[in-house]
Design a protein that fits this description.
Blueprint: H1 3-11, E1 23-27, H2 29-34, H3 38-45, E2 50-51, E3 71-74, E4 80-83, E5 91-92, H4 117-125, E6 130-131, H5 139-147, H6 149-158, H7 161-182, E7 188-192, H8 205-225, E8 229-234, H9 242-248, E9 252-255, H10 257-260, H11 262-265, E10 273-275, H12 283-286, H13 289-303, E11 309-315, H14 321-335
Parallel strand pairs: 1-11, 2-6, 7-8, 8-9, 9-10, 10-11
Antiparallel strand pairs: 3-4, 4-5
Length: about 325
Amino acid sequence: MTPKELVYASLNFELPETERIPRHLWSLPWADEKFPGAREAIQKEFPDDITRPPSCLKNPVRTTGNMFQTGIYIDEWGCIFENRQSGIIGEVKTPIVDDWNDTSRVQIPAEALTVDIGQVNAFCRGTDRFVMANACQRPFERLQFIRGTENLYMDLALEDEGLNAFIKTLHEFHLKELDVWSRTEVDALMIMDDWGTQKSLLINPEMWRRVFKPLYKDYIDLAHAAGKKIFMHSDGYILDIYPDLIELGLDAVNSQIFCMGIDKLAAFKGQITFWGEMDRQQILPFGTEKQVADAVRQIYDRLFCSGGIIAQCEFGPGARPENIRALYSAWNKMTIR
C-alpha cells in the first residue's frame, strides 16, 4: 500500500494486520540544534506517511521575527510572543486586547485566504503521501494569545458580551480559511487547542460544550461536506471530551494518551483514530529502548482495531534520538508479518 493508502486504511478501520501502522514524526528545531543530522537519518530510515504542502500563499502573512529564535516574535494576528530558548516556541506575556470593546490591535490575517489552489493541487498530485492542509484553526488558544490566559478565563466566567461577539468574528474567519483549503486536493484539514492540564480539563466540560463544541462542529461538518478527513491536536487530560469529539465525527485526535491512561481510552477504540502520541514526558526523554518498545506494544494491544492508530511522536525538548528510532523500529517489527 502507498503511504496515502495506509493512512486512509487506518482512519477507516480497514488496515490489514499484515500492513504496517502509518508513521508521522513531529519535530521542533530544537532537535536539529541539539542532535544535528539525527532527525534526517531517522526520517530517511522511517519516512513519514503524512506531509503538508510548502508555503503557498499568493500574499504572505505579515510577521515580525522568528518564532523559534530567542527574542520577540509577532505573529500574523499581531500577538506578541517572548522566547527565551531557541528551537522552541515562546509564550505570550503581554495581551494585545485590554477590553473586548477595543480589538483594534488585532490584525485578522486576510492573507491566509490567498491560497494558491493550483500550487497546492500540483503538490498533492506529485506525492503518494497523505496531504494535510497547511493551516490550523485554534480558537481557544487564539483567544488566549490575544487576551491573555487569566483574562480570558475571567471573561468566559463572566460571559463577557464583547468576548462572545469576537468569538463570532474569529469563527467566521476560521470557516473562510477552512473553506479555501477544502477546495484544494488535500486529504485532510486540521484544528487544535490545548485543553487539558495534567489531570483535568482547563475549563468546566459544560462550558466547553456550550461555547466551543459548536465551533468544532462547524469545522468538522465543513471538512466532511467537502469529502475531507479532519484531525485535531490537544495536549493534556481531555478524557471528558473524547465522547464529544467522537459524536462530532472527528476522524483522528492527537492527545497525550499516557497522561490519561491507555486503558481508559481503550473504550473508544474503533470509534476514532489515535494519531499518536508516545509519552514525551517520561518515556521519550528517560526511558530505555526496551521501555519504548513495551509502550508501543501497549498502544497496539489496547487501541488497534483494524487500524485506528497513526504512529506519531514528537522529537522535541528532552527526547532522545535513540528512543525515536526505537519507537519506529518497534512499530515495524510489530506490524509487518
